[in-house]
Write a structure and sequence with these properties.
By secondary structure, this protein is mostly helical. It has one domain. About 80% of the residues lie in helices and about 0% in strands. It has five helices and no strands. Helix 1 runs antiparallel to helix 2, helix 1 runs parallel beside helix 3 and helix 4 packs antiparallel against helix 5. The chain is elongated. The chain starts with a helix and ends with a helix. The C terminus is likely disordered.
Length: about 180
Amino acid sequence: MSTVIVALALLAVALALIAGLTVLLARPLVVPALTALERARFQRRADHVARADAQLRTRNVDAALRELEAAFCLFTVRVDARLLEQIGRHHTGILSRLLSVADDVPHHRVRLLSLAKVDRLLERRAEMQRAYLQLRGRPVRDTRRRQLGRELRRNARDTRAAVRELVADLEVIRGRRVAVQ
């Protein structure tokens, strides 16, 4: 009887060791895969910007606005810290394109409060994202890490709404221009 109990205890220890070794060995394999996934998601957003540029060159502003709206990177970066800088530059480029669309409206002083709102939300997102990446060594159940994850999801939702508002403002402003001409 005692042999069976010892055997079961050793089996439990062996399973725990195997699970621990699997986690330790899998992590170096998972990180490159997650990095590649994040970069692919970013590249899809960058492709939207390229299509928007092509639409702007052909003066199809409405289609360009839709592409620029879809180009915002609002996913949570979990692995690649260098991607954060690229996303920041990417968002700056999108906002400058949106501002140039607003500047093309002649004889109107355009006040885009929604542009400032989007800029503020993106800046806050970048700060939270940096803090989230600093906590990536902590366990998944860490309270601060989970809280930042929830805040990043809430920020993504708010930013999407602000971007939709900005695009709608630009469409209204462009509609006024058509009415004036």
